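[stage:ingest] chain + small molecule (S-adenosylmethionine)
[stage:ingest] validated
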Amino acid sequence: MSGKPLYEFAATRDWPGYFAASAGRPPRETLLAALDLFEREEPIDAADPPMAVDLGCGEGRDTAELLRRGWRVSAIDGHEDAFSHLQNRTDIAAWDRLEMRLSPFEECQIPRCRLLNSSFSLPFCSPDYFDRLWRVIVAAIEPGGRFAGQFFGPRDSWAKLPDRSHQSRDEVETLLKAFRIEQLTEEEREGADCTGAGKHWHVFHVVAKRV
Ligand SMILES: C[S@@+](CC[C@H](N)C(=O)[O-])C[C@H]1O[C@@H](n2cnc3c(N)ncnc32)[C@H](O)[C@@H]1O
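[stage:predict] done
[stage:export] tokens:
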């Protein structure tokens, strides 16, 4: 691996490069927080595992954790290489609880689910289709289910790219009006790559329960 930061691959939508550089990374904190909240409420029923959607699953860092913790998973991504990486993972045993769907966010159907996890992926939906995608997400999550993931804010460096969907804090709160917010952490910081070129991060980390 070159040591190039992950975000440089994401900046240019070099998803094969991103997947290769993501190998071995741990699950996202927002996913872990949501799973802990579920486990505090009710134990996983192995005879009838709950359903999670991992939207923009990438090479499967979150999908693998969901399967390890007993969930059924519908892993959705718009790049076919995501699924070849997923299928080559050595930390997945429960293949019978995983389905993989190749679909762009802009026209995806989302199955009914207890958890909709979308880690660092929603900003890559075309802005013309974001409202439609969010409606489909909200409709898919059962009452008492959760959303976990990130929205990117207007001060993020990528907000000026025309094909990205970024939201202000007020807009995030409006999107979450059908939810009880359990975590809404706003992160704003400078990142620098190995050449010194910077990226300003403005990210909302969210865990929210569907009412
Ligand atoms: C930054 S990666 C995040 C991957 C993983 N969830 C993670 O946390 O590392 C964004 C993912 O969204 C997918 N993606 C980007 N734009 C997409 C689109 N318009 N439709 C479907 N998938 C898309 C990419 O293929 C990639 O897997």
